[in-house]
Design a protein that fits this description.
CATH topology: Serine Threonine Protein Phosphatase 5, Tetratricopeptide repeat
Order of helices and strands: HHHHHHHHH
Number of helices: 9
Structural class: mainly alpha
Helix content: over 70%
Shape: globular
Number of domains: 1
CATH class: Mainly Alpha
Length: 211
């Protein structure tokens, strides 16, 4: 009888040991189909932190002085930078898309007060392209080339969007235009890479050097 009591007293301890043996690997991300959390590259994390700090600053400026449209443009650029860095980390794709949309909202507010600002229009087109809205992006960028025919960034992004969406033949003219405007600039060199891809029939594997 006493032996039976001893075994009964040992049962709770045995259950706890078994539970810990199962739980500890789960918490550590080992076994049981659990996957360890992927760490973000420290460099990307720092850039994300910097962009978020800028967002906080410009949001505060906008609340203090709602008439300051420059803070709206700066806020849009900060959202765009954050989204681009988030896009490089597969775990934050949804966050990236949300912040591309936030950037679009801010750029549109700025353009409502400052129509024709080609730099902001290019950023707007780039943000649309990153959301897969290629036709909307092309319309924005083509407005830029109508206003500023020598804007190299606009021609680069138009060519890239055509190439990215499988319209290789249509990509060649705008890419060639970007190259011809200044073949030695970073934008011109990037356009040349895409133009070579278009001529070879390769799928684009790069992102434009600048939005």
């Amino acid at each position: 009888m006493k032996d039976n009591v001893k075994w009964l007293l040992l049962i709770p301890g045995i259950i706890i040991v078994i539970g810990l043996a199962y739980l500890v690997p789960k918490l550590a991300g080992v076994g049981g189909g659990s996957t360890p959390t992927q760490r973000i590259d420290p460099g990307i994390q720092q850039q994300m932190n910097d962009a978020q700090n800028r967002i906080n600053t410009y949001q505060a400026q906008g609340k203090t002085n709602p008439a300051d449209v420059d803070s709206t443009k700066n806020l849009g650029e900060a959202y765009l930078d954050l989204a681009q860095n988030q896009e490089q980390n597969n775990q934050t794709v949804n966050d990236a898309n949300r912040n591309f949309k936030n950037a679009i909202d801010q750029f549109r507010k700025y353009l409502a007060a400052n129509p024709g600002n080609v730099d902001v229009m290019i950023d707007l087109g780039f943000a649309y392209s990153q959301l897969g809205m290629s036709e909307v992006a092309l319309r924005e960028l083509q407005q830029v080339t109508a206003l500023a025919p020598k804007n190299q960034r606009a021609w680069l992004n138009i060519g890239y969007i055509y190439l990215q969406t499988g319209r290789t033949d249509q990509s060649k003219a705008p890419l060639q235009k970007a190259v011809s405007l200044d073949p030695n600039s970073d934008t011109g060199k990037e356009a040349k890479k895409f133009l070579d891809q278009a001529n070879s029939g390769a799928t684009p594997g790069l992102t434009p050097v600048s939005p």
